[in-house]
Design brief:
Blueprint (H helix, E strand, L loop, with lengths): L26 E3 L15 E3 L9 E4 L15 E4 L1
Antiparallel strand pairs: 1-2, 3-4
């Protein structure tokens, strides 16, 4: 005897958990090579995948073949 309702009208429930196991995004900072006469340059910063978590990247200029103060102005930027 079915006292719960029509035959086949059975609802079952369960509890599950979703694990946040995605890899952290990879940050790529482009290499910019320009002559001194160019002035201001933009440095591309990209993530390989979108992220639900805040991603903060600090970029600082550094000397290599150019000399800070003579060839460029040192800059530190934070990208979010």
């Amino acid at each position: 005897t079915n006292t719960e309702g029509p035959v086949g009208d059975i609802t079952d429930t369960g509890v599950g958990q979703v694990e946040d196991n995605d890899d952290a995004p990879t940050v790529t900072i482009g290499n910019v090579i320009e002559g001194e006469a160019v002035g201001t340059v933009e440095v591309p910063v990209t993530l390989n995948v979108a992220s639900d978590e805040d991603t903060v990247v600090e970029i600082t200029t550094a000397s290599d073949t150019a000399t800070e103060g003579d060839d460029f102005t040192a800059v530190t930027e934070t990208v979010t």
